[in-house]
Amino acid sequence: MTIYYSEDHEWINVEGSVGTVGITEYAQNALGDIVFVEVPEVGDEFAKGDEVSVVESVKAASEIYSPVTGEITAVNEDLEENAALVNSSPDGDGWFFKVTVSNKDELEELMDAGDYKTFIAGLE
Amino acid sequence: MMNNQGRPTNTSSVKNVSNIYETFTGSQGLSQAEGLIYEIGDTERTGVDFKEVNDFKSALGGMERTNEIGLAGLTEPEVMRHYTRLSRKNFAIDLGLYPLGSCTMKHNPRLNEKMARLSGLGDIHPLQPISTTQGALDLIDTLAHWLKTMTGMPAVAMSPKAGAHGELCGLMTIRAALEAKGDARSIVLAPESAHGTNPATASLCGYRVKPIPATEDGRVDLEAMKEALGPDVAAIMVTNPNTCGLFEREIIEIADAVHAVGGYFYCDGANFNAIVGKVRPGDLGVDAMHINLHKTFSTPHGGGGPGAGPVVLSEALAPFAPMPYVIAGEENFELIEHDPTGKSFGRMTAFHGQMGMFIRALSYMMSHGADGLAKVAEDSVLNANYVLASLKDIMSASFEGPCMHEALFDDRFLKDTGISTLDFAKAMIDEGYHPMTMYFPLVVHGAMLIEPTESESKQSVDQFIGMMRHLVEKAKAGEIERFTGAPHFAPLKRLDETGAARNPVLRWRANEGEE
Question: Which helix (H) or strand (E) holds B336?
């Protein structure tokens, strides 16, 4: 398994042909207290870069973009009741959805942990 | 905690401002504690005496409600006091400077109110025969004339009832125009600094929104915009001056570029106040623009009254405008309710629009005159630049300036203080000010967008600047509690905004606390 990061602050943890997607610690911190998450439905298909989910915090509403092209195989239903999971555990219990990775080449356009760290350091 | 009726309140957040001692009632002198209206009365009594009805027979055939509805009964003085007390906790433009950037909270002249209450205007009804409302139709036509004149546009749709409603009207007009050419398109471009209503409007109209990044100096990135253009772009929505308080210098190039691919240029006129009497949007290539009468033309808003968002339209879009509209006939003014050409996209509102706001806006225009309106733009820009120049040594201005009608700061000056933009805004409440717009626009970090408007005197703006400098000094001196605990002097102190959003309690229920 490998974790990749997008410039929009999503992470995707790829195991076999399925990736689990969430937002990064940096993103949850920037958004502030998250009060609502809209997740897609299982079976929905998205192209890389499509708007797939919406996060609402006390500051703003933000879109979550699909880091890869694929089909949704599972969504984190706990977020419906407890959006705060994204704040408390952005890279664990606060995951958003699982998506099939149909084109592995798309992962090459994402960053690894080291590159992402450098990327956010440049945003400060 | 008890309220002054001796009844317990469950507003646990009603706390004493003073830490010296608590009052029995929870009131602070003239700042009276007030519970919910349901908690003041009780279900055992009624504020109104009804005669007993003898031999009552229901006509509802057994369908009438017989169980208790659980609403509290109150007397007239109780109701009066309740709402008067609540009103005293409110902040309003009539109480102080209201620097809410992008909202143009200017003074609402009392002359406007006097005009709106003239019985010939105040007591009419939209369903009256139009032979009896000629004066009102004349007024709408006159206002329309001046809106067209000031914007340099040939047509105006008067009926939209707010800025966002105007945007919707504009995009529906654009869609109708494109579809009439058999050229339905799917994309609308909106800069990253756009008002949130712009992408929302485009989305509601069925368009996909493509964001356009901002340049380093806070303006639309023309090159990126040109790259995003194509035969599928229906329109671009640009606010000018933009939400960073800056004039889009390349506005004509933007208009030309979108026209070159057959798209339309929608201008968000929310910030028209900064250029009224100075710039005619029609000269910039605008195809449609809403005008917030409740901003630029001083009609009350923000809880004080309904908005009004007439949309001026170019020659190309005019035939597709919504019904109804007023035209000056040979002898009388007429209200066109059915489009003879069949091109209009339809009707957005039941009636003519916000008549009360039309009266106030025209009153504002007539009392200012052309020279006065140009002076409005000058003074609003002057006041904002005075704020920018007076604070930029101690706060972090996002862009060098000069600015237009609003000054944008970000939170770099609070770095390492442990105080956020939100905390800073809350401390302004303790100082008796409505906070500025915060966390918008999104293109800068922890934004603070300050719009003093032209209503404020130099003395008033000086006091505001003095207050801001005072707070910045306290923040930098490490007085964190002043900010993170603020507001300390508001009736309900710091509210749990996250809790309210995550677990909203939208309905009062009897005996909630006892369950």
Answer: strand B333-336
Please state the rounded mean pLDDT for residues A84-97.
Answer: 95
The CA-based angle B176-B177-B182, given to 5 degrees, is: 90
B514: pLDDT strictly greater than 50:
no
The nearest CA of chain B is from the CA of A64 a distance in Å of 14
Whether the predicted pLDDT of B304 surpasses 80: no
State residue B259 phi and psi, 5-degree precision: -65, -35
So what's the pLDDT on residue B511? 63
Q: Residue A56 belongs to a domain with what CATH number?
A: 2.40.50.100
Q: Which of A33, A60, A61 sits opposite B498 (nearest CB)?
A: A33
Which site among A29, A35, A56 would you substitute to test the B interface, given the most B Cβ atoms closer than 10 Å to its Cβ? A35
Question: What order do you get walking across the sheet with B448-450 strand by strand?
Answer: B396-397, B407-410, B448-450, B437-438
Least confident of A99-108, B385-394, B452-461: A99-108
In chain B, where are the structural domains located?
1-48+69-89, 110-364, 376-502
Residues in chain B: 515
Per-residue pLDDT at B53 exceeds 60: yes
Residues of chain B whose beta carbon is less than 8 angstroms from a beta carbon of chain A are 196, 439-440, 442, 497-498, 501-502
Determine the pLDDT at residue B14.
44
User: Helix %, strand %, coil % for chain A, to 5?
Assistant: 25, 35, 40
> How many domains in chain A?
1
Determine the straight-line distance between the first and last CA of chain B, rounded to whole angstroms: 19
Do A35 and B439 make contact, defined as CB atoms within 8 angstroms?
no
Q: Which residues is A72 bridged to in the sheet?
A: A99
Query: Residue A35 and residue B501: Cβ atoms within 8 Å?
Result: yes
* Average pLDDT value for residue range B397-409: 95
Predicted confidence (pLDDT) per residue in B363-388, tens digit: 999 999 999 999 999 999 999 999 99
Chain B positions touching A83 (Cβ under 8 A) are 502
Q: What is the CA radius of gyration of chain A?
A: 13
Q: What percent of chain B has pLDDT over 90?
A: 77
At residue B136's C-alpha, the angle toward residues B134 and B139, to 5°, is 110
Torsion angle defined by CA atoms of residues B481, B487, B493 and B499, in that order, rounded to the nearest 10 degrees = -80
Of chain A residues 97-116, which have a CB less than 8 A from chain B?
none
Distance from CA of B162 to the nearest CA of A (A): 22
**Residue A44 belongs to what domain range?**
2-103+111-121
Supply the DSSP symbol for B162.
S
Determine the CATH number of domain B376-502: 3.90.1150.10
* CB contact (8 A) between residue A58 and residue B442: no
Q: What is the structure's pLDDT at B50?
A: 81
> Among residues A76, A63, A60, which one has the least CA distance to residue A21?
A76
- Could you give the 3-state DSSP secondary structure of residue A5? strand
Fold of B110-364: Aspartate Aminotransferase; domain 2 (3.40.640)
In this complex, the residue of B439, B442, B498 whose CB is nearest that of residue A35 is B498
pLDDT in tens, A3-46: 999 999 999 999 999 999 999 999 999 888 999 999 999 999 99
